[in-house]
Specification:
heterodimer, A: alpha/beta, Rossmann fold, 2 domains, 7-stranded mixed β-sheet, 5-stranded mixed β-sheet, B: alpha/beta, 5-stranded parallel β-sheet, 12 helices, 43% helix, Transketo_C/PFOR_II (chain A), PDH/Transketolase (chain A)
Chain lengths: 329, 287
Amino acid sequence: MSHALQRPQSPNSWHYRELNQKNPGLDHLSNGLISLVEAGHPIMAGSADLQYSNGLNRFAARYPDRYIGFGISEQNMVSAAAGIATTGMMPYVATFASFLGLLTCEQIRMDVAYCALPVRLIGHHTGISMGFYGTSHHATEDIGTMRSIADLTIVSPADGPQLEAAIRASVDHDRPIYFRTGRGREPDLYDPKADFVFGKAIEHARGEELTIIACGLPVHPAVQVAKRLNAAGRSVGVIDMATVKPIDRDAVLEAASRSKLLMTIEEHNILGGLGAAVAEVLADEGVGKRLIRHGIRDEYALIAPPTHLYAHYKLDEKGIEELVLKAIG
Amino acid sequence: MNSALRNDYRPDEATIARLRDRAQFVRLETIRLIEIAKVGHYTSVFSAAEIFAALYYDVMRLSDDPKWADRDRFLMGKGHAAVGLFPILADLGYLSADLLNGYTRLGNPLGDHPDMRKVAGVDFSSGSIGHALSNGLGMALAGRMQGRSFTTFVMLGDGEMQEGQVWEAALGAAHHKLSRLVAIIDRNGYQLDGAVDDVMGIEPLDEKWRAFGWDVHVVDGHDIGELTAALRRAKADESRTRPCCIIARTVKGKGVGYMETEPGWHLGYLDPSDAEAARAEILSKVI
């Protein structure tokens, strides 16, 4: 076992507790990959010096021969994953979404997507979940960059269990995939044993006044808001657009025909992301429906602890409820 | 078992003659294909013609099936020299010779850069300089994990040394002890904007690769005997625990006098009479 795998330190250390107890959602990444290996799939995993941030240290400890530490060389990691995939193995490589979606964008385009290789890219700590680490570590453009790359599937799980379900389902998906996942502290909404269907939106509530279409972290608070408002006699729908690309066009059109208003919510710039994708569907189909795009409004987010940022940008329950009520009057 | 070839190993004269003939074939076909395209990278192929010939006609383990899992791999960091590779792939029967006649024309899979999705025998697509050593690193890692014994050869341009990703891969390959990964640097001295050492110097190149943990050999890239021997030794040395880098000292445009002295021929087109003269010069020389 390499020196690196003996870290971090003891189970009592701050680092260990921080990463293994406070980010339980990311445990699901290793869980999913371990279950795939157990099922006999030719899985390899790799990371760029972040195995303790993304929890792949658990996979590495279990299957050291199937884990590659790439050091801080993200571009090399993505191109190498493409080389690995030519041999019939299925590589899953992970790093912060801010680096994966921007720094390695061209490697993803040329070596992974254009070559149509079964590489699975996992961008974690996405959106503004890195809080006061700052803009370098915020990923509010990655859906935009990845969405413009042909033949690349984009999945934005709302929680760890949904990530695990999508990871398990990914072995049967025939295209390269970019997973955009949070920091592992999202409240659980899903069952990791549930079937994940690529390209199929998940409807949590139906509403005639407004339908929220969200992906990633905002899905959970949106579901809570809808529950509360609907119990009070309002009619608010929620759709989890976990597969951002290819987008579930039918789900968008159905929501547009049912609801007076649509609202997209994403932990991303409102340009280029989920809101843009939904707007494109409406425009393509000639649906003249008011769409409120909620997210980061084409700016660099402030720095603060993540929960403070979610409150400031109205991506938490309170903020979402306020925006929904303002929209529906 | 250490089956390394002795340091004084040289291919026999018949092999050398055969490989010279194939390098000449690569140069002549390059001229013919660029006549169809009306523009192309002559000199980038001419510096690498012996490297192509040595690998495909002597060193690499290949079969009739271009997808054979245990084949040796060849990747091109300098993908713009693919016009020299395609005639070889046709010669080996991987693709129809008819395709060569429509090189770059609408609907033809053969373009300026190699495309693994479209062209049988191309082990990885390229065109964006700097990726290929990482791609090869991945193949070597996966090959070792699968218990396969293939060797992955990656030909890099010397200008390509300016790409940061090359050095990420160099670090990674040495760290992971990828002894079945061989980088071949076509050190022809020129890139688009001029002499490599004027644009962004890369020397001392051998010391850099040694410092990155590679086994380094510097050879005359046009001495087919020396080059082939170095490549065969690199492949056969099963005791080596490092990746291997062969720096092939070459001449950009080798084989056509006026191209050897004029770096502007990196990309160009020959008038029919000039093409005829180039062909005659190539046929008249023993390189």
